[in-house]
Amino acid sequence: MIKDKEAPAEQETGALPVPDGVAANVEALRRQLRQYEYDYYVLDQPKVSDADYDRLLQTLMELEARYPALLTADSPTQRVGGQARSEFRPLTHRTPLLSLANAFSEGDLRDFDRRIQEKLGHAVSYVVEPKIDGLTVVLHYENGIFQRGATRGDGVTGEEITENLKTIRMLPLRLRGDQATLPHYLEVRGEAFLPKEAFQRLNEERDEKGEATFANPRNAAAGSLRQLDPKVAAQRPLQVYLYNILSMEGEDRPILTQTAALETMEAWGLPVNRERRYCANIEEVITACQYWTEHRHDLPFEIDGMVIKVNELTAYEQLGMTSKFPRYATAFKFPPEQAITRVVDIRLRVGRTGVITPTAELEPVRVAGTTVSRATLHNEDMIREKDIRIGDAVVIQKAGDIIPEVVRVCTEQRTGAEKPFVMAAACPECGGVLARLETEAAWRCTAADCPAQAKERLAHFASRDAMDIEGLGPAVVQSLWQAGLAHTVADLYHLTAAQLEPLERMGKRSAAKLIKAIEQSKQRGLAPLLFALGIRHIGQTAAKTLARRFASIDALMAASAEELCAIEEIGPTMAASLTAYMANEANRQLIDRLRAAGVLMAGPAVMEAAAAMPLAGQTVVITGTLPTLERREAQRLLEQQGAKVASSVSKKTSWVVAGEAAGSKLDKARELGIPVVDEAELLHRLGDEAVEARKGGPA
Questions:
Q1: Which residues, in sequence order, are CB contacts of 299 under 8 Å at separation 6+?
Q2: Residue 302 has what pLDDT?
Q3: Is 50 among the annotated ligand-binding positions?
Q4: What does the alpha-carbon distance between residue 189 and residue 139 come to, in Å, rounded to a whole number?
Q5: Do both 281 and 154 map to the same domain?
Q6: Could you tell me if residue 12 is inside a domain?
Q7: Looking at the UniProt record for this protein, which Gene Ontology cellular component terms does it annotate, in alphabetical order (predicted)?
Q8: 279 annotated to a ligand binding site
């Protein structure tokens, strides 16, 4: 929703005197913008549209540029104000950051509790929190204002990454509350991370560009926050949860428990994980750990265990330390989710931009809740580095519990019959020459008429995140290609039901539905269209940014690389790729054909229209498997009617849609007394017209 913008430079003519009332207006604007950011990023309850927020932010930027004396470090305009750096400065932590001892079983947890009771002489309560697999960070606030932040480093000294941390939208630059009640100094510890969906999207984009992919969300978060240029970090939807008050000065009210510490941080506007649990004894701790061992995949972020802390902070000093770890806390680690299988073959897949991706064909094996039969090997270099051969026994896991990957080769099981992988010299689909740039890890097919690339472009154009043409998957694309009916995306808009009916597994009903879906896709708008065109380096986020900036594709085609680079989130590589695409005559002709077919090429004010929609202002959570609707489809239907679909249940949730095997979200909804509906009631609330328009309706 909310995007970053750079503040205009100060006027060269010098600062102007600040008129009466301007300073108060500026501070009121900041308070309003901070509240909108808190509503959106922390509460998942947006109160204004993008356009309304942007207008307020623009007004604030203009006032700060006109009166530089009013500019402050905690202003919402300073989210990405830092310059790129040549290196990170070391920052010594005021409070050493300790690691935790590990517990791997129920017996280990009981031993942990026994040692505490022996030391204190009485039983204690606990707080159990998900152990997010991200990058540990430390934040420093002075008089309620964020001053600096750092990585953990070796626990004593970390790297100062203040400007990168400022790009995390859910992290407040100023604490909430009356200045007089806030601590003079606050040092807090937390974990920065990349949600699973964002991690998968980032890796897909990097893979398509021929760039090295991240092994897991933790590496992605670390790589993002350790970028020397804050603008790179700003392009990635990082999040952070804080869980420890390390030190505090100037707070008169004592904080006696971990529960109270988390609630206090939450009251100050700091993001805190809501999945924490208070446990009266070790039996409840064990139950919580068992629950999350089974339900860890329900969370939108990756966790590798649970952190158990004694709730009473006053007991910490008495419990003390071992030679390495504090005695008041431990980390329960989940059992590893890996499996051993065999590489049957290594095949090459041709992407829509010509990238050749080696893929391991595996003997099917169950891992992390699903059956895995293939895993991407990314590029030739990775195969060489891990020495993966056809016939090898390999250990596989899901990176971020999402993407199957080969962890290592079981070389001890080799028989000598394994075959080393040899990269082909020609495209496996068209025989075109393969080439590899010095700056890239990937090989590419150089043939302009490669059918594999064309088919991939058709499938991408029709995909859900692009033009969302239901029923036009890879199998139908293959049928259309073989029948000579569609070789470019513009051909799709000239298809007729009569042409489709003879195709394999099509028939009259399916043909009519597909034609209707193609017709409906014309109204998707500029952002989906830009992403659907498959312009290299232009992903979903960049497409949305461009659609907000330019009213039409014609305005975008007329923009220079310099104009594009001036837009936040659009770098030189993206700008060069976009201008090159728009300057290509074949691409311009394709756009003209799409325009002639009636494809909408403007960016409508979606958020303004949403205010008048039937479900505007309502926040909905979906959990479990619905009978007929896929979760993503249900989400889109809800968003079309103005609802906000959140990933977690809170007091702000309006209602919950529950299907089969609903998990902790359903329990949380019942606990909070939030209404729960099934798919039938969901469809009723959406209305027949909305459902028919989205699903295609009866043929």
A1: 130, 275
A2: 87
A3: yes
A4: 6
A5: yes
A6: no
A7: cytosol
A8: no
- Below-50 pLDDT ranges, the chain: 1-13, 604-608, 610, 695-699
- Is 308 within 8 Å of 281 (Cβ atoms)? no
Q: Record the tokens describing residue 339, joined without a space.
A: 């499996």
52 is known to lie in a ligand binding site: yes
51 is in an annotated binding site: yes
Question: What is the predicted pLDDT for the residue at 404?
Answer: 85
**Partner residues linked to 359 by β-bridges:** 347, 376
Q: Is 129 annotated as a binding residue?
A: yes
Domain edge (last residue) among 570, 596, 622: 596
Q: Is 597 helix (H, G, I), strand (E, B) or coil?
A: coil
Please indicate, yes or no, whether residues 320 and 236 belong to a single structural domain of this protein.
yes
Q: Is the same domain home to 384 and 398? A: yes
Is 325 in the same domain as 350?
no
Q: From the candidates 3, 119, 131, 231, give the one annotated as an active-site residue.
A: 131
Instruction: Give the pLDDT confidence of 341-366 residue by residue, as tens digits.
Output: 999 999 999 988 889 999 999 999 98
Active site residue 166: no
> Which of these, 222, 191, 192, 216, lies nearest to 203 by C-alpha position?
216
| 309 annotated binding-site participant | yes
474 shares a domain with 528: yes
Q: Is 53 annotated as a binding residue?
A: yes
pLDDT at 437: 78
Q: For residues 211 and 203, what is the distance between their CA atoms, to the nearest angstrom? A: 9
The predicted pLDDT at position 440 comes to 80
Of the candidates 461, 523, 517, 512, the one whose C-alpha atom is nearest the C-alpha of residue 486 is 461
Q: In which domain, by residue range, is 251 found?
A: 102-333
Residue of 469, 473, 458 whose CA lies nearest to 515: 469
Which tokens sit at 246? 């390390």
The CATH number linked to 383 is 2.40.50.140
Q: Name the maximum alpha-carbon separation found in the chain.
A: 84
The CA distances from residue 547 to 41, 47, 596, in Å, are 22, 22, 20
Number of structural domains the chain divides into: 5
Both 323 and 345 in a single domain? no
Tell me the C-alpha distance between 521 and 347, whole Å: 34
pLDDT at position 50 is: 65
Domain at 205, CATH number: 3.30.470.30
